[in-house]
Amino acid sequence: xxxxxxxxxxxxxxxxxxxxxxxxxxxxxxxxxxxxxxxxxxxxxxxxxxxxxxxxxxxxxxxxxxxxxxxxxxxxxxxxxxxxxxxxxxxxxxxxxxxxxxxxxxxxxxxxxxxxxxx
Length: 119
Fold this sequence. Notes:
Layout: H1 2-6, H2 32-41, H3 43-79, H4 85-110
């Protein structure tokens, strides 16, 4: 058993590494090049960030749609049919809804979201 351990090289090696690294070689996480390599090597993290961004866009648009509907209700009671603020608020709500629908359709066609939605 001791003979097999002595036959191993003196460089640091762990299971799953692509190359051997000398024991005193710095890992180099502080450099920009290594950071970019780290981000490029993990597409699952980048994909998760894209999904989070899409969720944030969809949820914030839905909140804006509900807020626009609420402001239209407010203007309905306070203007008593004399102003056009309610019509403008409802037009904004329709535009936001159409924009969200177009965004979801384009996201589906570009492959940003799948058949079952975000995973």
